[in-house]
Amino acid sequence: MKNSIIWATFTASSLLLAAGFLLPSQASNNRVQIAQQPNCKSPQTTLEMNMCSTQEFKAADSKLNQLYQQLLPKINSKQQQRLTAAQRTWIKFRDETCDYEAGHFEGGTLAAPTYVYCKARVTQERVKDLEGYLKEASL
After folding, report:
1. CA 65 → CA 56, 58, 76, 120, distances in Å?
2. Cβ atoms of 75 and 137 closer than 8 Å
3. Distance between CA 24 and CA 81 in Å, rounded?
4. 40 and 55 in contact (C-beta within 8 Å)?
5. Digits of tens for pLDDT over the chain (139 positions)?
6. Cβ distance 80 to 72 under 8 Å?
7. What are phi and psi of 15, to 5 degrees?
8. Which of 38, 34, 16, 17 is nearest to 25 (CA)?
9. Residue 119 CB neighbour total at 10 angstroms
């Protein structure tokens, strides 16, 4: 239920962002401002936080999937089964951990970006694990 609310908020923010790209602007400055990337070093609005957290998570998730695909052919079938089981368990852990962290802001605008930032952070930690596994498998 919490996850549904967080994602509904996140999806609504994303749709509003997309609508901003489709609507004609009254002032030429607005077009430039909408087209610019958010300042992810210091996001100031909820929309910027949502955009930045999504970018950060997508990058980490892409790296994770790349490493996972590189690792599988380098390990035997028994280890492949173990890794697959570990990944499934880890995804559940990541999502539950981030539900907990976002729960501090339940019902507020910070819930969605907190959830996605958490997923990015925890995924980046898992990337380090897989990099280590890949290094070991390559020896």
Report:
1. 14, 10, 19, 13
2. yes
3. 52
4. yes
5. 555 444 444 444 444 444 443 444 444 444 444 546 788 888 888 889 999 999 999 999 999 999 999 999 999 999 999 999 999 999 999 999 999 999 999 999 999 999 999 999 999 999 999 999 999 998 8
6. yes
7. -65, -40
8. 34
9. 23
- Write the CATH number of the domain with boundaries 2-137: 1.20.1270.180
Structure tokens, 77: 């079938």
Q: Say what the pTM is.
A: 0.72
Other C-beta atoms lying within 10 Å of the C-beta of residue 9:
21
Tokens of 32: 């430039």
Residue 93 · residue 101 · CB < 8 Å: no
CA atoms within 13 A on the CB side of 4: 1
The answer to whether the beta carbons of residues 109 and 9 sit under 8 Å apart is: yes
